[in-house]
Amino acid sequence: MRSKIKKNHEFFELSKFRRRFTLLVLLTLFCILFSRAFFLQGMQKDFLQQEGFERSNRNIELYAYRGKIYDRNNQILAASETVRSITLEPNRVEFKKGDKKKLANLLEMKIQTLNKKLKTKRNHIYLKRKVDPKIASKILALKIPGISSEKDYRRTYPDQEISAHVVGYAGNDGNGLEGVEYKKNDLLSGTHGYKKILIDARRRVVENLSEVNVPIDGKDVHLTIDKRLQHIAFQSLKKTIDDSEAISGSAILIDSKTGEILTMVNYPSYNPNKRMRKRTFVRNRVVTDMFEPGSTMKPISIAAALEKKVVNVNTKIDTGNGFYKVGRTLVTDTKPHGIITVKEILQTSSNIGVTKIAEKLSKKELWQTYSNFGIGNLTGLNFPGESKGIIRDYKKWRDRDHYSVSYGYSVSTTIAQLARAYTPFANKGEIKNLRLFKNDPIKIGQRVMSIETTKAVLKMMESVTKEGGTATQAAIPGYRVAGKTGTSRQFIEGKGYGAPGERKYNASFVGIAPISNPKFIMAIVIEDPTKGSNYGGVVAGPVFRKVVAEALKIYSIPQDGIEILDRADEDEKKEI
Amino acid sequence: MKLNLILFSLLIIFALVKINAHHLYRVNHHALEIEKQKTIELKDEQNQLLIEESSKSGNGRISEYARNKLKMNPPEKKQKKLIK
Fold first, then answer.
1. Cα nearest neighbour of A569 on chain B
2. Residue A88, pLDDT above cutoff 90
3. The CATH number of A61-222 is which of 2.60.40.10, 3.40.190.10, 2.60.40.1260, 3.90.1310.10?
4. For chain A, how long is the longest CA-to-CA vector?
């Protein structure tokens, strides 16, 4: 029995050669495995890890939404919408018959341009950015290998050209380039975030590999602009410029109590939704362009004289036969007014009358008043490109400047400055800073004139819109309106104010309504009206009437001039 | 020996629980990611609708529609009648 077991054991026992051979084979296999492992993990480590990461790890950018821009009633003026960008991998692209033409048509691109893009040596390029999602899905439906789409965002401006100068526009990269978009870019932009994720074989996101850098969305910006009034102001400005064949025009409407800007429009304008290489009429001329304000300066000059008590409302001044020579300068009126009161000087806009009043004041007193009324100072808006206006130091004034400044020459202002300069008349002598952003703190107005003086000037300005005044077309039935017209000659470089027949004019009007409790101040300037009259009252006055009449209705301001309404009714009755 | 066996079994069970928990975490994480994606899509859609609403309710469009399609115009002086 024992011998049998031994035999079996002997039977299974390998020969010495076999044992060694097997061991050698196993050792060899182990060496191969070990060397392979060494090769992969030691020598190819970086490459393989890189490949592994690329297959399973992704860095994802988390988009921070650019803030929206709203008007005062939470109506959108600018927002970002989702679009697609069409991408191309030239190495993979293969066109079936007719596909290339279809693609070029959908991209609104010439075949030659498409071919040029296809020849690029880069691995990944954008065929077209910010494509409408519907067009993008049509392109993807062509199923062209190597053509795909990426999500992108595009800034959209529903108000188009109406609010373009206020809102401005943002570039392809989402950064603001003009207007509020530029001014508040840091606030609107926010900060993009990112995260590193792990995806599985089915490309599902299964884990965050690092701490998520959360995106911080841009903050919304609320403007003081009223979209409804903005539309009305733009349309009536457009109509006036088209009718009078003027070059351009600008208008600003402010809340006289707070200095909030309700409308700020320019015409011609541009559509910020259209992508262009070079844009024209981009400047917000309300705050950037200066002009000589002409007679719209007269209420301030008269206010200075009343404040210094060198004249009163009923002081009579001889304006003669319409011609008055001061030194070598001839001051003229449109027609002889003879002896008239200070009130009538403003009503008839007599240059001679204001010159004679200015003679009673020193240069310093005049300059100080203009400066207090914000002429030559920023309005508080800090709008990109805002200009300060020009008023030279009184020490540098020539005698001629002393008089010409009083009726709005030798001085330059923006239309925004002019509107601000009228806030003391509406606020019992307090000047208000202009505000465009709802969240900006309201600054307390600064007193620049006595209550009595501003009341007196306001009452005098009311006569301008009444029978015998220069701006009867600015009167609003049912309301008492104060204002002042301006018709100033443009100074042309090298030509001066031009010879008769070649002259160009700026027609302007600044008005306040309603007088009993002023709510609105509107300033309008029309550059070079050539058809019909070029007088401020005739050209700019109706724009004031249309816009402010609507504003009074929209803001439910009670009527304070019922007698005017009665007269208007009588006129209508006669017509019927 | 018995204790070792019990501990070994526990080790296996906990290992399996750990694997299962990790798997569940990944499944839930994926579901969360889908929901987050939906949130972004809904936010985009909301933006789109707000823009659309703003464009369509624009004063310019309403005025154009009223004038051209509904033939509405402000009455001229001759068309006005005074009623007392």
1. B82
2. no
3. 3.90.1310.10
4. 158
